[in-house]
Amino acid sequence: MGPWAAGVGWVGLAACQPQPAAQQGAPALARVVPKARVLEDLVLFQRIKEAAHAGIYKYRSKAQMDSAFAAARAQATDGMTVIDVYRLVVGITNFEGSLHNDTALPAAVRAEMHAAPAFFPYPVKLVAGQLLLNTARGPLPLGALIASINGIPARRLVRELGRYYTTDGLNTTGKTVGLAADFPEYYRLEYGPQAAFVVRYTVPGRPGTLAQTMPAVPYRAYEQAFAARHSKPFDDAFFNDAPRKYTFRLLPNRPAAVLTVNTFDIGEAGTAGHRRYAAFLDSCFGLLRQTPAITDLLVDVRANGGGDDNNDMHTFAYLAHAPFRENKGATVSFRQVPCRRYLSFEKNTAERATAVREIAGLLRTDFAGGPNGQLHQTARSNPVFQPRPNRFRGRLYLLISPRLASAGSMFAAMVRGRTAATVIGEETMGGYYGHTGHGELAYTLPNTGIQTSFYWVDLQQDVPPRAGQPFGRGVLPDYPVAQSRADFLANRDPQLAFALKLMAARAAGAAPTRGPRIGAPKH
Fold first, then answer.
1. Is the pLDDT score of 320 beyond 90?
2. Do residues 306 and 413 both lie within one domain?
3. How far apart are CA 143 and CA 133, in angstroms?
4. Among 230, 262, 292, residue at a domain's last position
5. Is the dihedral of CA 462, 399, 522, 519 positive or negative?
6. Residue 191 CB contacts under 8 Å (≥ 6 apart), including other chains
7. Name one GO biological process term (predicted).
8. Entry pTM
9. What's the burial of 18, exposed, middle or buried (CB within 10 Å: 0-12/13-18/19+)?
10. What CA–CA distance (Å, rounded) separates 168 from 408?
11. Are 16 and 344 spatial neighbours (Cβ–Cβ below 8 Å)?
12. Same structural domain for residues 216 and 253?
């Protein structure tokens, strides 16, 4: 489908964030935005979303979204800082529900905020519903169960800070990914700067609740602690590029193979990166076809946050049993890019004009008017894919995680819905039935400099309805498997271990050894 991209912006909009005209030269964090200017930005924000974001009513009704916008305006007061307004915008984007929604502070505000010693000093991780300390280098023991920080219970922290990391629909598992990486920043944004943190915690095997006071640090110090976090051997690919984007291996002494695809950010059709990946896949599945003794294939996409268009469909063609499309349908809510003067470009009208022309070209070639006046994707831009001649015909297993998003979760949804694969792991961040992706738009609100960005095509993925797959949720596993605290402490991979054990049991003709095959989501 040409220059569309599932998971990355098609045209790299510049992240320009102009400073408000008022109070130039004042400290960025202390800058106060008059109430009238706040309301102007919030009204513009609603106008942009309604005009440009096709998925604005995907999970919420118009009445619900109107109420959310009105509630934000009702909270506007004189004396608000940019961060105060930022919290209002984040609340709306989180409520709307799209993992491609993003809200960014002006660069000067963010830099000044990060420089001050106001942040929680150590990484944390949500494991089995408990907030654990994720370092062995702090004053608390590794894996300490955090009960509260500065009097705020851990459960409340998880609930309130999760809104700063957007996910599709009603999904909450994906928010654990954001909390693991940016908990101190979310805490600073939600509760303000702190001089110190009083942490109340428990340690299994030790009686009572303990307390420890830790001084706040600049964000750079936290970043260094995160880079040295305990869980890095297990979850590094969730936050950094994996050493290899894709791998394939035969399991010794087993009739099985493992295909790992850590990203689809490989290159679009026609690029050298895509050609290398296509040749890699053809080689792997050619080997499987020529080796009938290999009866089981495990596909691991747990770190896959998306990437370039059609790499997901090209991969699925080696697993599909019948022809398929990427989408049942896709819609756009505008015929011309709205609110163009607020697009995030650095006063470069030529760059803005070029981007607008490119979008107009896509609208002409890939969309046509529908009966409701909305633009709908054309059949030409939504081609039928055929299963590859050397597609895999044996037992298929899929490993999923909360990190799976965009093209990664779309691939998982196709495997979940269109094959007999056994799916193991945790609910994905990206939706099963669809998402809003393809083509990034970024706007800057003029009075605060806050940037809002989103993707502008609403997609209905070509997957069948499933009784145990509610609308608004990510891809759900047959066998829910997640780390326990003991797994976390040992950096064990229980999902891979369970998959290999299940594969061995089935190869031997035995029944599954753990966990029910579910028909409804596990809460």
1. yes
2. yes
3. 5
4. 230
5. positive
6. 150, 152
7. proteolysis
8. 0.91
9. middle
10. 13
11. yes
12. no
CB distance 371 to 273 below 8 Å: no
Task: Write phi, then psi, for 128 (nearest 5 degrees).
Answer: 55, 40
Q: Which two tokens stand for residue 456?
A: 């502008």
Q: Is the dihedral of CA 77, 79, 82, 83 positive or negative?
A: negative
Cβ-based neighbours of 224, under 8 Å, separated by 6 or more: none
Residue 163 lies in a domain: yes
Provide the CB-side half-sphere exposure for 460 (13 A, CA): 11
Residues 66 and 131 in one domain: no
Q: Which residue has the tokens 């109420």?
A: 67
Task: State CA 396 to chain mean position distance.
Answer: 25
Tokens 């268009």 map to which residue? Answer: 309
Residue 329's H or E segment, with its range, is strand 327-332
Q: Answer yes or no: do 265 and 214 share one domain.
A: no
CATH code of the domain covering residue 317: 3.90.226.10
> In the beta sheet, which residues pair with residue 450?
none
Residue 86: domain span: 35-96
Q: How far apart are CA 166 and CA 100, in angstroms?
A: 7
Q: Which of 397, 391, 419, 420 is nearest to 289 (CA)?
A: 391
Handedness of CA 304, 107, 110, 220 (dihedral sign): positive
Greatest extent of the chain over all pairs of C-alpha atoms, in Å: 73
Question: What is the DSSP secondary structure assignment for residue 475, as one 8-state letter?
Answer: P
Could you give the dihedral angle defined by the CA atoms of residues 433, 311, 385 and 420, in that order, rounded to the nearest 10 degrees? -60
**E runs forming strands in 220-293:** 246-250, 256-261
- Residue 49 belongs to a domain: yes
Our count of domains for the chain comes to 3
**Looking at the structure, do residues 297 and 334 belong to the same domain, yes or no?**
yes
22 part of a folded domain: no
Predicted confidence band of residue 400 (pLDDT cuts 50, 70, 90): very high
d(Cα 238, Cα 182) in Å, to the nearest integer? Answer: 13
Quick: pLDDT tens for 180-231.
Answer: 999 999 999 999 999 999 999 999 989 999 999 999 999 999 999 999 999 9
Same domain? 341 vs 420: yes
Instruction: Tally the C-alpha atoms within 13 A of residue 88's C-alpha that lie toward its C-beta.
Output: 24
Distance CA 335, CA 351 (A): 20
Q: How far apart (Å, rounded) are the C-alpha atoms in residues 246 and 235?
A: 16
Report the 3 state secondary structure along 32-46.
Answer: EECHHHHHHHHHHHH
| pLDDT tens, position by position, 275-295 | 999 999 999 999 999 999 999
pLDDT, residue 76, reads 98
Same-domain pairing of 358 and 439? yes
- Does residue 1 sit within a domain? no
Give the domain CATH number at 207.
Answer: 2.30.42.10
Residues shown for the chain: 523
Of 175, 210, 230, the position where a domain reaches its end is 230
> In the prediction, which pLDDT does 510 show?
66
Sign of the torsion formed by the C-alpha atoms of 77, 80, 82 and 84: negative
Q: Are 391 and 319 in contact (CB under 8 A)?
A: yes
